[in-house]
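Protein folding task:
====================
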Amino acid sequence: MATTNQSFELPADLPVPADDGACDHLPGLRLPAIALPSTAGGTVDLAALAGRTVVYCYPRTGRPGEPLPTGWDSIPGARGCTPESCGFRDHYRELRALDVAVFGLSTQTTDYQREAAERLQLPFALLSDADLRFARALRLPTFSVDDMTLIKRLTLVVQNGQIEHVFYPVFPPDRHAEEVLDWLKRRDAESAEQKG
């Protein structure tokens, strides 16, 4: 079985996820008021946050030396959670300069997420939806592997608790933070033009 010791490198032959329409219903929806455990301590209710928030949902991060889930590299969109998180880490200052809050979200437990947040030196919190309350309330697309239910890779741009934009499918994950940053800059420029 393959291991995650190459978790920062993506295989060149990863299958590209297709847009199956599973997120078409999300733009314009209000987030559910659900308190999600945070690696920063306490809980976060994304619906109650003011301003713009980016929530990147990912299947699961691995740990160096531990086996990958069965067939992980053959599942479209599964591989790449560590590089994606590192991308948001590396672009965090630029995102904050746009007054955007950032959170990662997965169905892993907070204890599991905390190890990744510390190892990857993430400057933002990871949120746990281990009971799938958030995913089910929004009908987020999921998949199952090795008795785990995981959220498919997608990103929500939220404005004052309402979904403004959805990135789905996300590929390649290691360049996704740049894609989000570019979209936010374009959106702000368009808003400035409309006001001008």
Q: What stands out?
A: Residues 1-6 have pLDDT under 50 and may be disordered. The two ends are 58 Å apart (CA to CA).
